[in-house]
Backbone:
């Protein structure tokens, strides 16, 4: 090593020193995202499935009023902003601009939906999934990138954050 | 063998599903899906752990009893204790030394956990991680061990290996003998919200709140490491993820705290007259027979208590029998409610269990509304699946730990919040979280606190089984309660992911502990109960497992074997698919062929054959010849045309008629009946695209409007785990088929589950169409008739 590189490390989530809940014996903080081409609509669909309660905690920590009714206009907008700011997808080297579709609650889960026009090339997909990690240090995010009958998973867990990439060489 | 029947079938393929999209993963060419797990992963049975899954005649486990005097220094946030420990060697082996768990050492700067922490990102650091890092620089965590002496007061040699401490015995401890020794120690309590310790303190600092703290105290004394028949001394270090492997014993614990504290602890309070007022003791008595929770310490009393303060101390004495651990909590902020839960203790366990909750006023009103009630409900549901609750108390304490379990006491995190106007609120999510987490943590008192599985090795044995039962508990809380974590469809995303690990993976090595050790095993048990075994057999087998292994230490193999033996189902294929593999479930319909019986009657069969031939397109060469006006030789020379030219090969000959008559004469009555019935035989070919073999569950619909639900056991895959053809005979005409209509097997790709194929819409498409029809309605919005831009306005009555 020839020199020491000073690294400017940003502090995530505006240093909201809200209690960072620890790992606990009840279910671990985890979320699942599916990235799936839809041939019927010609879109690439991105569906985030998070625990509703975890999302609620994170939305409130990020500034939403805690009495905001779920699925109302304000809540839906907050969920959009929240997920937009914490999920990046690049396809064949280009960052995709996502359109927000909406969100719904199903049992313990909240789903947040985005779409983008289906890119011409779909051989390399990069994902940085930072959902909920500022609220829960132990958050484990799993992104299933689907291409035809192949699923490739990008896992963003404690100790393994940052962008992950999958390739579909035969496509 | 008779010459009968399905000789030459009139075959007609009525479907081959179109390019079904399947999810491919670790699919190998040959799957021996039903190979037995004995001699593969399962250990050879012995007299300790026999092949039928019950504890054997030679079963043994150690016992470790504790007498402890512990003191909380509130100002220094420091615990000091002295313990007299009696180790009973019930094993057939002589022991030179004993290992103890020193779990607080995880918070030393040089601990393996601290040294092996990896960064979460190279360009960003979370505020929580930054705060922890700073705290770890300045704060001294870990045990300070004072003295370790034998009963004569002689110092014993010790050796520290990260979170383990070895105590060398002056004399070999022979089988059947016991040894007593004394340890003193101190340590600084971690601040739970900063370092994350499954315990610790939290102080309330906001203006409207008193600066008082809640202390949750766990992993607080040297606990004996497990010494077992299958592993010897357990020496996996505590790295924070894999929880604990412990021994049962009896505890007498004296806890000295500020005199105005309320203390909750594993066990039963032995000296209420010294620490409770007469009124509080009367209320506790009243709670034993009350129909609803009784406040032992009211809100007003707790608030007054916070304001007064004291320099005095008080000592709370607790006694707990046959527990694998001991934890406690104390605060002057605690409101305390209690309810006697009646049960049939079957002569072994209490008939009345005291369910109790402890919480600060800050977390009201949700705690008094739900916590103790959820304990009551949880005991009811869990006991129905296992055995009567075996201890006299079951407690839920509100504090900074999201959720953590110990014998008779649990720490739970849900809290109310205060909005800008100072109003107390709690969200729908918080209510559900409270119900879910209290059920889950109280449930842990059964698994693993009583059915003492090895948490550090196999998280799923306590978390998976417990998530299964807390799912049942939440399902029984109220109709349509929003819990779907253990519903089969919810696990598909994890099971199809490309870098999972099998459930049978050591706890600290699992990357996604939530789906791996909680949701997937819980879902597997739901499927085993609802789909594979049925409720009656499952409940009997599961209850037998619980009762066989209460207050003992089961391994996964004891669980697997018991479930098989009691239910009468060889389930190796199920364990292999769900617990040992990373394959998923995906059954697809390859084709349906309608086979009709060959009647042998030339009048019918020849005509059918002609029909089939006529249905084929004409030779293109012949058609082009004709259209070009080219004549054949026979057309030009009609004298060559004879009988054969005029009649095709399908004409019925007398020889055929005679053969048919002889054939009919040779048939049994039932054969003739079947021949004339016109039965349709549908040959259905199914593919196993996911790898895990599962039952094939079918809904069949017929043209006459009737339907049938068919459940084919998983053994259909025994000869070929990749593809099978199954036959179904009916005199009706099949018009629709659906595989797994009730979504009960976690089938990952449903696009090839239906005949005739239906267009499946994605979640997002479905969401969009539901939004276009009723979103505005749902949101109480209206559009005025004359608005040009159809801008929604809030309308109607305010609610
Ligand atoms: Zn748990």
Residues:
């Amino acid at each position: 090593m020839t020199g020491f590189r000073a690294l400017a490390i940003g502090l995530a989530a505006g240093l909201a020193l809200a209690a960072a809940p620890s790992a606990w014996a009840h279910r671990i903080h985890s979320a699942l995202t599916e990235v799936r081409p839809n041939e019927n609509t010609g879109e690439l669909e991105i569906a985030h499935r998070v625990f509703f309660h975890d999302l609620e905690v994170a939305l409130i920590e990020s500034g939403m009023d805690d009495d905001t009714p779920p699925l109302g206009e304000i809540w839906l907008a907050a969920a959009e902003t929240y997920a937009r700011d914490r999920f990046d997808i690049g396809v064949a080297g280009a960052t995709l601009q996502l359109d927000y579709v909406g969100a719904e609650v199903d049992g313990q889960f909240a789903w947040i939906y985005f779409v983008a026009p289906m890119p011409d090339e779909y051989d390399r997909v990069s994902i940085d999934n930072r959902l909920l990690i500022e609220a829960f240090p132990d958050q484990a995010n799993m992104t299933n990138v689907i291409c035809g009958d192949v699923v490739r998973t990008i896992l963003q867990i404690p100790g393994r954050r940052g962008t992950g990439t999958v390739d579909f060489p035969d496509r | 063998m008779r010459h009968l029947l399905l000789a030459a079938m009139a075959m007609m393929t009525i479907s081959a599903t179109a390019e079904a999209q399947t999810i491919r993963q670790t699919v190998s060419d040959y799957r021996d899906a039903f190979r037995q797990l004995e001699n593969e992963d399962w250990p050879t049975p012995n007299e300790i752990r026999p092949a039928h899954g019950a504890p054997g005649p030679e079963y043994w486990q150690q016992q470790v009893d504790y007498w402890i005097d512990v003191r909380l220094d509130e100002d220094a946030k420091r615990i000091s204790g002295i313990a007299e420990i009696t180790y009973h060697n019930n094993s057939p082996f002589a022991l030179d030394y004993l290992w103890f768990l020193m779990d607080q050492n995880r918070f030393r700067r040089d601990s393996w956990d601290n040294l092996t922490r990896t960064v979460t990102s190279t360009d960003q650091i979370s505020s929580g991680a930054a705060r922890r890092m700073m705290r770890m620089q300045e704060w001294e965590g870990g045990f300070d061990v004072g003295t370790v002496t034998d009963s004569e007061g002689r110092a014993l040699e010790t050796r520290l290996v990260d979170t383990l401490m070895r105590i060398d015995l002056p004399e070999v401890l022979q089988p059947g003998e016991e040894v007593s020794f004394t340890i003193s120690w101190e340590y600084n309590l971690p601040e739970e919200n900063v370092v994350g310790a499954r315990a610790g303190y939290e102080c309330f600092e906001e203006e409207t709140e008193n600066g008082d703290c809640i202390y949750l105290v766990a992993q607080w004394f040297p606990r004996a490491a497990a010494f077992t028949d299958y592993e010897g001394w357990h020496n996996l270090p505590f790295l924070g993820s894999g929880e604990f492997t412990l021994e049962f014993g009896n505890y007498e614990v004296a806890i000295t705290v500020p005199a105005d504290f309320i203390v909750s602890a594993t066990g039963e309070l032995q000296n209420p007259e010294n620490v409770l007022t007469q009124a509080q003791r009367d209320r506790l008595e009243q709670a034993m027979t009350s129909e609803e929770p009784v406040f032992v310490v009211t809100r007003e009393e707790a608030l007054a208590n916070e304001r007064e303060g004291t320099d005095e101390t008080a000592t709370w004495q607790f006694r707990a029998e046959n527990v694998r651990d001991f934890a406690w909590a104390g605060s002057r902020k605690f409101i305390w409610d209690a309810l006697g839960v009646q049960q049939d203790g079957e002569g072994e366990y209490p008939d009345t269990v005291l369910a109790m909750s402890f919480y600060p006023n800050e977390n009201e009103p949700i705690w008094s509304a739900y916590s103790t009630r959820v304990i009551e409900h949880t005991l009811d549901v869990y006991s129905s699946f296992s055995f009567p609750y075996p201890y006299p108390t079951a407690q839920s304490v509100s504090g900074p730990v999201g959720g953590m379990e110990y014998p008779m006491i649990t720490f739970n995190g849900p809290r109310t919040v205060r909005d800008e106007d100072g109003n107390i609120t709690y969200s729908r999510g918080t209510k559900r979280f409270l119900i879910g987490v209290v059920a889950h943590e109280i449930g842990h008192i059964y698994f693993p606190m009583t059915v003492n599985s090895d948490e550090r090795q196999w998280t799923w044995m306590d978390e998976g089984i417990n998530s299964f039962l807390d799912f049942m508990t939440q399902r029984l809380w109220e109709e349509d309660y929003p819990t779907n974590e253990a519903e089969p469809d919810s696990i598909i995303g994890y099971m199809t992911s490309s870098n999972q690990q099998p459930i049978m993976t050591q706890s600290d090595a699992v990357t996604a502990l939530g789906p791996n050790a909680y949701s997937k095993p819980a879902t597997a048990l739901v499927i085993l109960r609802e789909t594979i075994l049925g409720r009656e057999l499952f409940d009997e087998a599961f209850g037998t497992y619980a009762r066989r292994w209460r207050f003992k230490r089961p391994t996964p193999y004891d669980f697997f074997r018991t479930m098989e033996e009691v239910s009468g189902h060889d389930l190796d294929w199920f364990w292999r698919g769900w617990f040992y593999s990373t394959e998923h479930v995906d059954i697809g319909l390859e084709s349906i062929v309608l086979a009709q019986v060959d009647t042998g009657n030339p009048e019918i069969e020849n005509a059918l054959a002609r029909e089939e031939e006529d249905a084929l397109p004409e030779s293109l060469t012949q058609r082009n010849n004709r259209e070009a006006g080219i004549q054949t030789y026979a057309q030009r020379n009609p004298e060559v045309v004879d009988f054969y030219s005029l009649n095709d090969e399908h004409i019925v000959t007398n020889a055929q008629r005679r053969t048919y008559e002889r054939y009919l004469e040779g048939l049994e009555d039932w054969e003739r009946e079947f021949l004339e019935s016109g039965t349709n035989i549908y040959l259905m070919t199914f593919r196993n695209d996911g790898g895990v073999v599962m039952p094939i569950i079918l809904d069949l619909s017929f043209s006459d409007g009737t339907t049938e639900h068919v459940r084919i056991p998983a053994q259909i895959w025994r000869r070929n785990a990749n593809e099978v053809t199954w036959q179904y005979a009916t005199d009706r005409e099949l018009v629709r088929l659906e595989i797994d209509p009730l979504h009960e097997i976690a089938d990952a790709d449903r696009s090839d589950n239906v005949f005739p194929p239906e267009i499946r819409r994605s979640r997002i498409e479905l969401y969009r169409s539901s939004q276009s029809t009723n979103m505005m309605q749902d949101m109480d919005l209206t559009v005025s008739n004359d608005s040009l831009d159809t801008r929604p306005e809030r309308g109607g009555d305010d609610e």
